[in-house]
Task: inverse folding
């Protein structure tokens, strides 16, 4: 199978976020970046599908600024065969449809059997880029996938529903799946893999190469720190954890009455 | 005149409770724009459900009925709702942000060359311009999205109050879409649950819940000790169970258990919405987190800002002292 995995580079999870001047996005200068978590699972699933099949190709697809090359290299080091990098400096100016149109245009040229995306990005959190891509490509999709098994010209998947329910479904190929974190166990890149990655192809294209007209139907006007409405009783445990602990235990004992 | 359309969710004849929150959001938006709010319910034989929805103070309830809509498929629902929207031309289309909506609403919006503004927490309207507020970075940041007429949006769990809907008598309109079996490409089997849960967190009075702040599996005893000292059940956020550090049945959240103990102590948990929906109903919530801006503090009654590896052992000592 020829499998394309859409990977996004996002700020690392514990990042301290500050709104940039102008209030349109965050300050990125001091941030570090990593692969979006579910995308790491999607990549792993693609690699495992290829290994089980004994043949095929895994292509990493990333839309992002030049810094995203780092994340792409890591995907190649883990075992992706090659990569496509759609270079675009400011994603926050696009809406999901704009993002999905770019990704879909790059996918179309490749004609893959299967496309995997993460179910949600940690930064934008739209939770829909994959579904929109599938519609643009005219192929079926399934979301929040926890298991994938190839069956001839189709795939059988286990989809996660709410409250601990699941559902199996069979989908004809080509198809798109959005992958949930925890579907598999992530591998680490080996030294050998890192070395090999340096020789693998990263094809760089731009929005105008892909011929996708840009325009957003929902525009991001402003980002800001949420107004906190609920006033929790907060104890500072930084300097004197024992004191904060004692203060909390007193509340647990006399107000919550669980001790 | 066009209206705000809210697509309600049902499965096997049972309402998804978030449907009413989305309808409340729709009523609020319609009120701000001087429009009426309509609802749609999709399925096979949904007349009774449509009748129930019609007991709210709204305009119309569309019963979108077809044999091929008996069980949910993204293809079937998209085809049916595309026709309803083309015919009724609503000004805005709202959904509850459920797993099912995540599965088909972006596809439906794409048919109209629009995006779905997903997981919206509040709506502002000035003139004809509408601003949808949604969270970025798992609740660490808010963002305003400006959207024009024709936009699609889904509403976050708990963001609007279902009780704000007044009772009334709406008109039920039957809508029979034409759906061809060939458009449905996916074969779905009946939903199932994994083997029964050995741990029933819903009965626990005290829950100590651990998140990714614990860093590694070898550190789990740190929170186990706290749970033991308090006589509490141990629970976890999803990444902890994904990694296999604790069994899946201890997961709290939208894909795990929903709990409401006397006190829920969240240790090193950031407070993403999918976690919050599983524990927001707790009588008291305690958060221990090193990041004072972590969204978990928004739902907490008590909190300690600090390093859990210092705070939790201190807490264990204090609990033991108090119990002695
Ligand atoms: C469809 C879907 C379903 C999901 N279902 C669920 C679900 O059922 N349950 C669930 O929990 N999640 C679920 N998630 C995942 C959810 O979105 C979050 O990713 C997850 O809850 C984050 O877990 P966390 O808070 O443990 O980790 P993180 O978000 O990484 O937070 C770790 C926290 O620990 C703090 N911390 C770090 N070090 C320390 C320290 N030394 N001392 C104190 N604090 C520290 C950090 O400040 C941070 O706030 C779901 C996601 C999706 C998209
Ligand atoms: N800029 C991007 N580059 C590559 N893949 C992306 C990009 N944006 C979104 N995706 C994919 O779409 C998924 C869902 O993203 P979102 O719709 O933003 O929540 C992610 O997990 C990625 O797999």
Result:
């Amino acid at each position: 199978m020829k499998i394309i995995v859409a990977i996004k580079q996002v700020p690392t999870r514990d990042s301290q976020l500050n709104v940039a001047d102008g209030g349109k996005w965050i300050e990125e200068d001091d941030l570090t970046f990593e692969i979006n978590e579910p995308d790491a699972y999607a990549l792993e699933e693609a690699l495992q599908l290829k290994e089980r099949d004994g043949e095929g190709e895994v292509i990493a697809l990333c839309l992002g600024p030049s810094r995203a090359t780092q994340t792409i290299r890591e995907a190649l080091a883990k075992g992706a065969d090659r990569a496509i990098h759609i270079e675009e400096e400011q994603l926050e100016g696009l809406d999901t449809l704009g993002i999905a149109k770019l990704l879909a245009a790059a996918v179309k040229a490749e004609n893959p059997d299967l496309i995997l995306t993460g179910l949600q990005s940690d930064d934008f959190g739209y939770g829909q880029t994959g579904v929109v891509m599938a519609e643009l490509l005219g192929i079926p999709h399934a979301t929040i996938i926890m298991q994938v098994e190839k069956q001839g010209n189709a795939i059988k998947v286990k989809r996660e529903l709410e409250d601990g329910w699941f559902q199996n479904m069979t989908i004809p190929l080509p198809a798109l799946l959005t992958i949930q974190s925890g579907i598999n166990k992530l591998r680490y890149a080996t030294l050998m893999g890192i070395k090999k990655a340096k020789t693998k192809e990263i094809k760089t294209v731009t929005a105008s190469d892909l011929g996708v007209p840009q325009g957003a139907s929902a525009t991001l006007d402003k980002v800001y720190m949420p107004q906190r409405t609920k006033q929790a009783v907060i104890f500072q445990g930084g300097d004197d954890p024992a004191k904060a602990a004692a203060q909390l235990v007193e509340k647990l004992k006399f107000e919550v009455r669980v001790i | 005149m066009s209206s705000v359309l809210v697509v309600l969710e049902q499965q096997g004849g049972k309402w998804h409770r978030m449907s009413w929150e989305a309808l409340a959001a729709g009523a609020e938006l319609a009120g701000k724009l001087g429009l009426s709010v309509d609802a749609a319910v999709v399925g096979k034989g949904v007349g009774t459900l449509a009748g129930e929805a019609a007991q709210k103070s709204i305009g119309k309830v569309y019963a979108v009925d077809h044999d091929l809509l008996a069980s949910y498929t993204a293809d079937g629902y998209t085809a049916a709702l595309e026709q309803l929207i083309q015919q009724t031309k609503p000004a805005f289309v709202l959904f509850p942000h459920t797993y099912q909506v995540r599965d088909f609403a972006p596809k439906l919006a794409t048919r109209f060359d629009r995006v779905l503004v997903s997981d919206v927490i509040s709506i502002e309207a000035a003139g004809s311009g509408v601003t949808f507020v949604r969270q970025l970075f798992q609740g660490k940041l808010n963002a305003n999205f400006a959207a024009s007429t024709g936009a699609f949006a889904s509403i976050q769990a708990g963001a609007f109050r279902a009780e704000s809907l007044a009772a009334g008598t709406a008109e039920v309109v039957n809508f029979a879409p034409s759906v061809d079996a060939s458009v449905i490409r996916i074969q779905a089997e009946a939903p199932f649950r994994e083997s029964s849960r050995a741990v029933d967190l819903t009965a626990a009075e005290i829950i100590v819940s651990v998140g990714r702040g614990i860093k590694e599996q070898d550190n789990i005893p740190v929170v186990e000790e706290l749970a033991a000292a308090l006589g509490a059940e141990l629970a976890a956020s999803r990444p902890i169970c994904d990694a296999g550090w604790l069994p899946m049945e201890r997961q709290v959240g939208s894909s795990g258990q929903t709990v409401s103990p006397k006190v829920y102590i969240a240790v090193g948990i950031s407070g993403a919405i999918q976690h919050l929906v599983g524990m927001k109903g707790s009588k008291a919530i305690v958060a221990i987190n090193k990041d004072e801006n972590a969204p978990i503090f928004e739902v907490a009654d008590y909190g300690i800002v600090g390093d859990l590896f210092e705070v939790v052992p201190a807490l264990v000592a204090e609990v033991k002292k108090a119990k002695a």
Summary: Residues 229-259 of chain A form one domain. The pocket of adenosine monophosphate (ligand 2) is lined by residues A 6-8, 36, 38-39, 61-64, 91, 96, 99, 103, 117-118, 120-121, 124-130 (CB under 6 Å).
